[in-house]
Design goal:
The strands form four sheets. A seven-stranded mixed beta sheet has the order 2-10-9-8-5-3-4. A two-stranded parallel sheet has the order 1-12. The chain has a two-stranded antiparallel ribbon with strand order 6-7. It is of the alpha/beta class. The mean pLDDT is 97. It has ten helices and 13 strands. It folds into two domains: 240 residues, Type I PLP-dependent aspartate aminotransferase-like (Major domain) (Aspartate Aminotransferase, domain 2, 3-Layer(aba) Sandwich), CATH 3.40.640.10; 102 residues, Aspartate Aminotransferase, domain 1, CATH 3.90.1150.10. The structure holds 4'-deoxy-4'-aminopyridoxal-5'-phosphate.
Length: 360
């Protein structure tokens, strides 16, 4: 078997140990003669998997008891719409910080259902920098303040939770969840599509302070209501059982790595190494303002875009996959989530140096 070094932005690499475990579990899970995909989500065996995954996640992230954890579907994109529908009354406003493609999408969806306001917009820097917090226009009457701690496409990360006053802070952590310790109690809600640091696509995590569940306006159908999902144990309808099971295995794996503190140190080290290699070279460049450079998604350009094709082809030959940048920004992007180890990043750095030597 040969595994590549996978820099995919998402769906992203999963731990080999988790894949091997799932492989051996599939035909005959827990001696049942069935796979986890072939049993009822209401069976005792599956409920145990679901509860253990939640307990492990609570443990990893230090999620306080007054927060509900939901294992939903619809992706982060569905939460772009459900959050304003649930957390704001029809006549209330909601505040958004715009730092790149994903926060703009979240803002656009919110605008379809509520009066969404822009607290600050990084457009002047072409989303390579974040406006100073002192210049943000925060409305103390807004139902919440939404931001995207890590912009997966632009590689812009806000490393500390911003101050939103008494207004609940809502974070789209799709591409940064579980990458380092965070203080969950600073947030009203955290949400993330699973397909980067959690597990396979099809599962979406929502962590929400329980008092916010009560805000849902009258008349919202149950399936769109966080309160109903929380009360129903995320089983209002059939959940994505296999993805939930696999996420549970990833949580166990992460605990074995030393949890978010140890993985956070490794993530910082990986990012520091790669940015240093980029900054030390006159051939590669990353456009993001230094305080906001992402630990997870590192876009970079070559001296000339004419070399992009050769870079990608030679990288693939060397087993370095999925380095092509997002179509909206071009160049390259190395997504180095929790599963990428230091050796993988070093292999990329060595490849980049050799490519520069032969093409620079
Ligand atoms: N937000 C961010 C920050 C993302 O990176 C992504 C997906 N890459 C999304 C939202 C959309 O997630 P989904 O495809 O799960 O709807």
């Amino acid at each position: 078997m040969s595994r590549v070094i996978n820099f995919s932005a998402g769906p992203a690499a999963l731990p080999l140990e988790v894949l091997e475990r799932a492989k051996s579990d599939i035909p005959d899970w827990q001696g049942s003669g069935m796979s986890v995909m072939e049993v009822s989500h209401r069976s005792k065996a599956f409920i145990a998997v679901a509860e253990e995954a939640e307990a492990d996640l609570r443990d990893l992230m230090g999620i306080p008891d007054d927060y509900a954890v939901m294992f939903l579907q619809g992706g982060a994109t569905q939460q772009f719409a459900l959050l304003p529908m649930n957390l704001a009354q029809p006549d209330q406003t909601v505040d958004y910080l715009l730092t790149g493609s994903w926060s703009k999408k979240a803002f656009k969806e919110a605008s379809a259902v509520r009066k969404a306001q822009i607290a600050a917009d990084g457009v002047d820097s072409n989303y390579t920098d974040v406006p100073e917090q002192s210049a943000w226009k925060l409305d103390s009457n807004a139902a919440y303040f939404h931001y995207t701690p890590n912009e997966t496409i632009g590689g812009v990360e806000i490393h500390e939770p911003p101050q939103a006053g008494d207004v609940p802070l809502i974070a789209d952590m799709s591409s940064t969840i579980l990458s380092r310790p965070i203080d969950v109690s600073k947030f009203g809600a955290i949400y993330a599509g699973a397909q980067k640091n959690i597990g396979p696509a099809g599962l979406t995590l929502v962590i929400m302070r329980r008092d916010l569940l009560e805000r849902a306006p009258a008349g919202l159908p149950n399936i769109l209501k966080y309160k109903a999902h929380a009360e129903g144990g995320s089983m209002l309808n059939t959940p994505p059982t296999f993805a939930w099971y696999l996420a549970g295995l990833v949580f166990k794996w992460l605990k074995e790595q030393g949890g978010v503190t140890a993985i956070g140190e490794q993530n910082k080290q990986k990012a520091t190494m790669l940015y240093k290699a980029i900054d030390d070279s006159a051939f590669y460049a990353n456009p993001v303002a230094k305080p906001y450079r992402s630990w997870m998604n590192i876009p970079f350009t070559l001296a000339t875009p004419e070399l992009d094709g050769a870079f990608l082809a030679q990288a693939e030959t060397a087993g370095l996959m999925n380095l092509k940048g997002h179509r909206s920004v071009g160049g390259m992007r190395a997504s180095i989530y929790n599963v990428m180890n230091v050796a993988g990043v070093q292999t990329l750095i060595d490849f980049m140096a050799e490519f520069e030597r032969t093409n620079g």
